[in-house]
């Protein structure tokens, strides 16, 4: 079959992805439970404060998904063309992103070991899928903008691996030590992730050219 | 009435469509039921595993809608201008896409013959509407980018027909044999669909020009 | 205060509007009720068919909102710049569009006179707000692309008035005759609306220039 | 690490933000409660009117979020490039925007002092975060389009402060006087805000150049 046109540019793929990200992070709030009927006559501080777990998992998931979005944008800043395979790898990644409100809701309702592990597994899988996507485009000619050296591509890949690694490590921590330890892991790792990215950028700006 | 401007370009039509697709695939997850109050004190493996049917229909619908999106993008990669008729054909197609979370939810709650057939009918209708859209733009002058031969247009149309055909065939399978057979059909057909598309593209890249 | 830059171009206003339209038409399906627990063991034809009213109001609202979107796109095809006033008129219009899933849900649950009138009022107000938006931009210099004569602008305005007029007329029909009459009105008027638009376009293409 | 490409342009950041805004204002309507089963047989005026509080908080939140969107667009009309820090400041702002449907739902269900204060706090925080974003980009070289004087930047900052100030002031009003006073504050302040913006623009157009 003749190729009568160049491989499609990723504009619509990116638009669809942004849409899925935007919706996934915005429907998270639907998991913050409203007080049920008895509370209807008077919302007290107790009711609002009683939702702290929902609010905590809202904030956590928002930041983690935000982080995936930043990484996803970084990937597609370097992708010039894409093919059916990239489209479908991206689709499976989006399927994983769009699923995240479910483990978030579970975690908000219950801090038991099953919810925590299920949450950590979901995040690990999502992050791993983004890594696979990057791995694929960086290994196949013609997908990346020119000027990215293989070393640089590998470095970026390592950066995308940080999030799934962090969540992956929290799974045994929750299973064999204590679910609360997983929460601590996530918080610490996330803070260090943002710090790392910001400082990398800072150092880049600090240097003149290199 | 004078035509003081060229027929509108499809930018906003595509943006609206991408929005509807993004939302339709993201609200699918809302159908994955959270455990109700009694489970609130402790989410057990049983509860999470008990949702397998919801998760299965989530994955299935995500991939099928993703496939419709890929086909829709393919159609509009070839459409340069569009008219009221194209807008409305597209609107009816989007109406069908946006409806899909409902049969998905039904299927997730219940695997009986009615849910299965209802799901298959919904998918068949949606796919058929996309085919009608393509059929319309390919038969009317001035809608397609130049350089698409009638043969090529017919070939593309056949490709869009694969999904509704597959779901259409599963209707009698579910009605007269067993609902479980429909599930098997969908899985097999979907895998072959993706394989076909990827291999078509592969062969295209393999050839030098043609 | 100095104007250091030209009045903003409507790209983001249009993007926000498309987002609101896309979400409003997609969340409509959430109003189609799932069968409750007893039905969980077996979804029967009765259950699916019993939702006909929900499906009817889904289709109706989808088409009406789709029609508002077509009109909105038509308005902004002619708007080159926009100001705070246009932004806020558009915001109030969007507020009305985003509200439509509520009367749709009411109508789907109950076909009584209150639901029908509430639905008709909501649609009338939304359509009237779009007309006001057009009226504003067409009366104030510098908002429209050049080349639109006042006559043409008035003609477009009349076209946008058709939908609110149709729904407005169905209010007394429902109140003083029968709610069912309103349904008939809407159907007839909508069909004629689409027919009108398509035929206007057809005649435009038929003529050479004019 | 070498900077092999310029700091990313804000197109996708803006697209994600528009998506979050569009969804946040559209899911507000899901908080308008449908009458429950007993009302199913007949929706009466009482039921519709009984939802006035939900409708009021819908309109209020829609306009306030709309106002944040207008301010956000104004900010990014002046931002040419952005960095990780801007991305994350924006992400935290979006997290606050996406959270707003929750206090809106609380306010719609109950007009007690806790709901009112919680709502006012949420709005104050969101507005303050937008101010912080502006403060950051206006203080760091290379983020803003050239031609914005420091005076002008400070003036814009003050404009963005109006909304959080208004909501901030209503907190003691609700706590120490009466929750109803907060409602009055919001209404008055919002009207004056819109009036201010429109009149500022008007005066700008009135002058020839300056």
From TrEMBL, chains A, B, C, D:
Molecular-function GO term, any one: potassium channel activity
Localization (cell): Membrane
Protein name as it appears in the record: TMEM175 family protein
Domain of life: Archaea
Positions of transmembrane segments: 12-32, 52-70, 86-104, 116-137, 158-175, 181-200
Cellular component GO terms held in the UniProt record: membrane
Keyword rRNA-binding among record annotations: no
Species, as recorded: Halomarina rubra
